[in-house]
Design brief:
Shape: globular
InterPro entries: Expansin_CellWall, RlpA-like_DPBB, RlpA-like_sf
Protein name: RlpA-like protein double-psi beta-barrel domain-containing protein
Number of helices: 3
Distance between the termini: 54 Å
Helix content: 10-25%
Number of domains: 2
CATH architecture of the largest domain: Beta Barrel
CATH topology of the largest domain: Barwin-like endoglucanases
CATH class of the largest domain: Mainly Beta
CATH superfamily of the largest domain: RlpA-like domain
Strand content: 25-35%
Order of helices and strands: HEEHEEEEEHE
Largest sheet: 6 strands, mixed, barrel
Structural class: alpha+beta
Keywords: Signal
Length: about 160
């Protein structure tokens, strides 16, 4: 009898692990704070949760979310001169970090893909740091911002990730 129960429990855990492995690109949340989970793994690693944004799209690991604003680019912290017509962004200080390689931040020149709540997308190059932005926020050049929302909106909810 004990062997049957153990075998059944092990089989259940293995099938649950397989299901979670297939979904491993979703965010891992604190097991003490589940938030409306769609899929929960009660394994040793804690809860794995598929989180959805306000439009029902899934957040994936490696994505950030925050506010998108616009600024007038010039010579940014990466050292390049840019104009309002360039598709460029300034990343908040926390996400930009202080990772230097050869005197320049390693995030300088990376490409980010930005998506608003309506699903409009734009790709832009990281050229600056935004000291006034919170974690997850980006400051976009006018050329990048207008692809997501009209200037009159001023601030737009965004999700973004590095694509290179």
């Amino acid at each position: 009898m004990k062997f049957t129960v153990i075998a059944f429990a092990t089989a259940c855990m293995l099938s649950l692990s397989t299901m979670v492995t297939a979904q491993d690109d979703y965010v891992v949340a604190d097991k003490n704070k589940p938030q409306n989970p769609e899929l929960v793994d009660f394994g040793l690693s804690g809860f794995v949760i598929k989180k959805r944004d306000t439009k029902g799209r899934l957040y994936k690991r490696g994505q950030s979310s925050g506010k998108g604003t616009f600024f007038s680019p010039n010579r940014g912290s990466c050292g390049w001169k840019n104009s309002k017509n360039d598709l460029v962004v300034a990343v908040n200080e926390k996400d930009m970090g202080n990772k230097k390689k050869g005197g320049r931040n390693v995030n300088c020149g990376r490409l980010v893909e930005i998506v608003n709540d309506a699903g409009k997308k734009v790709r832009a190059k990281v050229v600056d740091t935004c000291p006034g932005c919170g974690k997850g926020d980006l400051d976009l050049s006018p050329a990048a911002f207008i692809k997501l929302a009209p200037f009159s909106k001023g601030v737009v909810k965004i999700q973004w990730k590095y694509v290179n």
